[in-house]
Every structure is written in structure tokens, then in C-alpha cells.
Write a structure and sequence with these properties.
Elements: H1 9-17, E1 28-33, E2 42-48, E3 58-62, H2 63-67, E4 75-85, E5 88-98, H3 100-106, E6 113-115, E7 118-121, E8 127-136, H4 142-161, H5 165-173, H6 176-185, E9 191-202, H7 223-247, H8 251-258, H9 267-278
Parallel strand pairs: 1-5
Antiparallel strand pairs: 1-2, 3-4, 4-5, 5-9, 6-8, 7-8, 8-9
Helix pairs in contact: 4-6
Length: 279
């Protein structure tokens, strides 16, 4: 009787003959688009075995490339995929962040830096984290810095509660929130810079959410008061313009204008002066 032992050589040959499966060949490339705020521009591509695996992926982009404006090169944006249709992935703005090197360039000696960080809720129930940044033109007291920080928090919390997340992102990217914030704070102390350093989505349950309050007592200066402040400067410009027109007058008319009421002008000369001034 002859015994035959299985030494396993046949199994090793089968393993050698089996080719490894290349997973990358099964993956499909998906085009990633920016939100409507940036006209659905293409911001990248990513491979995935299944479309659902694209959900939650993030893509970073510089605001300069999306707006074609060199002034926005200090802002970095992070987008998160929230919806997929076929091979196209649609995103939403997850974070808006100012480059730390840009902030560091403003901070100098004899200036006070005012920072804050808090979370508030928008009108559509989205939790938004904001980190404002203020920089005074010179050193100030702690009491004034505290007032400026409190006013900033009150205004931003009220603004976020009155708008949805898309409107908040649009106004921060377009710098509308920052300009309005300056009007609320600059009467306390002159500012060198006012920025929203970080704006981002917050997921999950957060207990320390800032509750909005009324800002009726924080109304910025009205347009009439701003015009009153500009009137002296406008008067100086008007006077300078009158002097330039007087220099352009003929000599016989100019001498009578410089008399300032000591000598009455004839009707013909007055008409000539008015015609020259209007010209």
C-alpha cells in the first residue's frame, strides 16, 4: 500500500497564479464644486469606490483663487461635501480662517490686541463659532478693552440670530460684518484692524451658547452726525475751490472781489464773476 502525502505545493501554486485585485481601478473620480456663493466653481476632484464615501470629505481653497482678487489671499476656506449627484459632489463652507501671518503683521508694540471666541446659533438652527479680532491704534485701558469685547460679542450674537448660515458666510466673505462692527466699536477707541479671525460650523450639542440680546443701545452714529463731522472739511474744500476760481479771474474783477464788500460791484461784473465760477 502506497501512501500519498499532501505537501501543500498545489495550494502555493494556486496562490501564485491568483492575481492581486487593484482597488484603484474600481474607484471613480468625483468632481467637487464650491457652494452657490462662489458660483459652483470646481475646487477639486477625489476618487471613491462608492458615492456615499464622499460625504464628509473636506477640501481647502484660498479665497483669492475663488474671487480672482489678490487682496483676499490671506483667507483660507475649508469646504465639506454634503450632497452627491452622480459624479458631482456639492459642498458647504465649513470654516473661514484668516492666515495667522496676516494677523501677526498688524500686531506691534504700543497696540492692544483684543480677542474673543464664542458659539452662537443662527436663525436656521446652525451652531456657528466666531473668533473676532480687534487691534487698537495705541495702548488703552482694560476697562475700554472689556467694553469693546462685550459690544463685539453682543452685536455678533444678535446678527447671527437674525440670519441663516448662508447669509452669515456671504456677509463675512464680502466683509460686510467687519465694516458694520467697526461702526459699533470705533467710538470707544480708534481701531487699526477689525477682522473675523475664524468662522466655522460646530456639530453636536454645545452648552455654552451665547444668547442674543437687544442692541438698540448700541446703535452706531447716524448719517447726520457723520455729515456734521465732515462739514468742516467740506467747508475747507469749498473755500479752497473758491480761492482757485478767484485766482482765475481777470485782474480788474479780482481786485473788486478781494475788497469783500467795501466796494459794490456793478451788475455786469457780478454776472462775469458768476459765469467764471460756474465754468
Amino acid at each position: 500500500m502506497r501512501l500519498v502525502y499532501n505537501t501543500g505545493h498545489t495550494m502555493s501554486k494556486a496562490k501564485k497564479l491568483a492575481k492581486p485585485i487593484d482597488i484603484w481601478k474600481k474607484k471613480r473620480w468625483h468632481t467637487i464644486l464650491a457652494p452657490k456663493l462662489f458660483n459652483n466653481q470646481v475646487i477639486g476632484e477625489s476618487p471613491a469606490l462608492e458615492p456615499n464615501m464622499m460625504l464628509g470629505r473636506t477640501v481647502m481653497a484660498n479665497l483669492m483663487h475663488l474671487t480672482r482678487d489678490m487682496k483676499n489671499q490671506h483667507v483660507d476656506l475649508t469646504f465639506e461635501v454634503e450632497k452627491i449627484q452622480g459624479d458631482t459632489a456639492y459642498t458647504q463652507l465649513k470654516t473661514y480662517e484668516v492666515n495667522p501671518a496676516y494677523i501677526k503683521r498688524f500686531v506691534r508694540r504700543n497696540r492692544d490686541r483684543i480677542d474673543d471666541s464664542f458659539i452662537c446659533k443662527s436663525s436656521d438652527g446652525v451652531l456657528v463659532q466666531l473668533k473676532p479680532f480687534l487691534l487698537t491704534r495705541s495702548l488703552t485701558t482694560k476697562s475700554i478693552a472689556t467694553k469693546m469685547r462685550n459690544i463685539t460679542r453682543r452685536y455678533l450674537a444678535h446678527y447671527v440670530s437674525q440670519n441663516d448660515y448662508e447669509s452669515i458666510a456671504r456677509d463675512i466673505v464680502n466683509y460686510r460684518v467687519q465694516r458694520t462692527l467697526v461702526d459699533y466699536v470705533k467710538h470707544l477707541y480708534p481701531l487699526k484692524a477689525c477682522e473675523i479671525r475664524v468662522m466655522g460650523l460646530v456639530k453636536g450639542e454645545i452648552k455654552n451658547v451665547v444668547k442674543p440680546s437687544s442692541i438698540d443701545d448700541l446703535t452706531p452714529p447716524s448719517n447726520e452726525r457723520q455729515q456734521q463731522r465732515r462739514r468742516p472739511r467740506e467747508m475747507r474744500e469749498i473755500k479752497a475751490g473758491v480761492q482757485e476760481t478767484e485766482h482765475a479771474l481777470p485782474m480788474n474783477v479780482k481786485r473788486k472781489v478781494q475788497v469783500e464788500g467795501k466796494e459794490d460791484l456793478t451788475e455786469e461784473k457780478e454776472e462775469e464773476v458768476q459765469e467764471v465760477k460756474e465754468a
